[in-house]
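Usage

Read records sequentially. Each one opens with the input sequence:
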Amino acid sequence: QEQLVESGGGLVKTGGSLRLSCVVSRDIFSANAMTWYRQGPGKWRELVASYTYGGVSGEFITYAPSVKGRFSISRDGAKNTMFLQMNDLQPEDTAVYYCSGRWGSRDVRGQGTQVTVFS
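and closes with the structure output:
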């Protein structure tokens, strides 16, 4: 069973930056998809950014419209780690951020890391 562990959350002022990390217990490139989600207080879970392997079509990177241009997803295969660089953070970005991996039909999610943005 794969394990995913997030870190890097915290308290940051509006306009600030944070970088989240997600360490995966197996080869990160073996996943069909790797995703960052978030769930803010009183809100539904939202896809923030993802890598999706499209077979012969290659790989796709997707961002939520609300974070495009401010957040950037990346990976380090040598460390089996996925990152989410978050710049120009706003109070509405306050949420618990989760990373998730899909292997076949199985989705595995980490425990989450809290990000709080204050003005």
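Summary fields computed downstream for this record:
- Residues 53 and 107 are 14 Å apart (CA to CA).
- The mean pLDDT is 95.
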